[in-house]
Amino acid sequence: MAPTVCKLTGKEKTKMRKPVVEKMRRDRINRCIEQLKVLLKAEIKASQPCSKVEKADVLEMAVLYLKSNTCPSAQSYTHGFSRCTEETTRFMEQQIAKPVLMEQCETTQRAKVSAESVCAHAHGDSCQIASKSSGEHALWRPW
Fold it and tell me: Which compartments is it annotated to reside in (predicted)?
């Protein structure tokens, strides 16, 4: 007797695969809940030391644990603010420690502005450059 070969349609294949796919999904959920049980071992013992813990209980404890441990506390805010203040102070001290360099840059900038004003007078652009050289200092930019 020859074996019979059945050709399955798309719907029939889906019907046959659905229980297998559903079992894989349930297994994955159960593995994750078991991992949460291991991670939350101390919290589980504190809340329910002798009884069997249901999956829903494990999920609720995980949610409570995450809520209580991920909210920013006042201490972390204070620490961040203090660190920001320290970095700002360090930056300002570095800037104050370099007055000679800043004076050299300003001198170079003034020389450049006066040279441009001489050139501008020759080309007729005296309004814009003259205002720079008549007391207003152009901002020094390192770029």
Answer: Nucleus
